[in-house]
Amino acid sequence: MKELHITAENLKKSFKIPLLKEGLRGSFENLFRREHEIINALIDVNFKISEGEIVSYIGPNGAGKSTTIKILTGIIMPDSGDLNILGKNFNRNRNGILKQIGVMFGNRSRLFWNLPVKESYGFLKNLYEIDDTSYKSNLEFLSSALDIENLIGKQVRTLSLGQRIRCELAAILLHSPKIVFLDEPTVGLDSWAKWKIREELKRINKEFKTTVLITSHDTNDIDVAGRIILLDKGRKIFDGDKKVFTEKFGSSDYSVRVEFETNAEIKEELFKTIVSRINSFENSVLKFSVGQSDPLFKFLKDIDYIKPIKDLHIDRESLDDVIRKIYAGT
Ligand SMILES: Nc1ncnc2c1ncn2[C@@H]1O[C@H](COP(=O)(O)OP(=O)(O)OP(=O)(O)O)[C@@H](O)[C@H]1O
Ligand SMILES: [Mg+2]
Taking the complete model, does pTM exceed 0.85, yes or no? Predict the structure, then answer.
């Protein structure tokens, strides 16, 4: 029986925001009588997550994903509800728990901008009191898993977004956290870079048994997870196995579009051995469909051997369509 890593019970959070009237008269009125709007960001959200699970926490903009992550990492307090992390009440054991988790918000950096990446790692080593042996072995594993050996000597500001995100991931994993929270970690990356990072996360999860909660508003991002929690307007509307989710709500096919570098030497016959159903292959752009039961990643891994790829898109049913289906009760 696996240990429960997160138990969230009836989490509620609302925000009160002032409704400001416009114009001179409005500003005058605002001084005396201010009206407020209440936004229910989370409404009785419940879930239990076990050790080693990778959970994709998805929902459209404003669904309450970041609010949940902020509550689970102690940045904000819920209005009510109970939270147990690593078997302990979060409120009463906050400091001990915070040492054992890692968090990454897509657009915020943990790294010192003007210094080489490894300087930030040294800082984190001291902050988390990581002993020399664990630091060395973790850094070694993460450098190779995240393909950053050649980056950690460089100044952070010289890195591309994708390179920086890999270095950020290593930064939050250095102290061997038992749980990591990733809030839209791959936002802004092209689909190829996103896919690579998802594969790397799976490797890290396998090696360290790290529990991973990853948010996204894109159904294409759910491949990394074994389980999906879907949130809409502050309410949980689906929680279950990814297979059940895709069978119930996904379209029957993924459509894949691979764009190669124009100078790449590509033999169409080669692709016929990988993909039986090519929809079109023109101007270095290959389009094909893959059924849901196909082991999609086998195709993509094989394609990886036939680089160089400029861009890759794998599209699933959009989140809006999925949510519509759930409300329609299909
Ligand atoms: N500090 C705040 N003050 C007021 N309202 C807030 C605050 N933080 C979040 N909200 C509101 O709470 C709701 C949930 O926001 P949240 O950031 O959790 O959504 P999200 O699912 O992360 O969305 P996105 O995909 O856009 O990141 C939104 O309506 C948002 O406007
Ligand atoms: Mg958010």
Answer: no
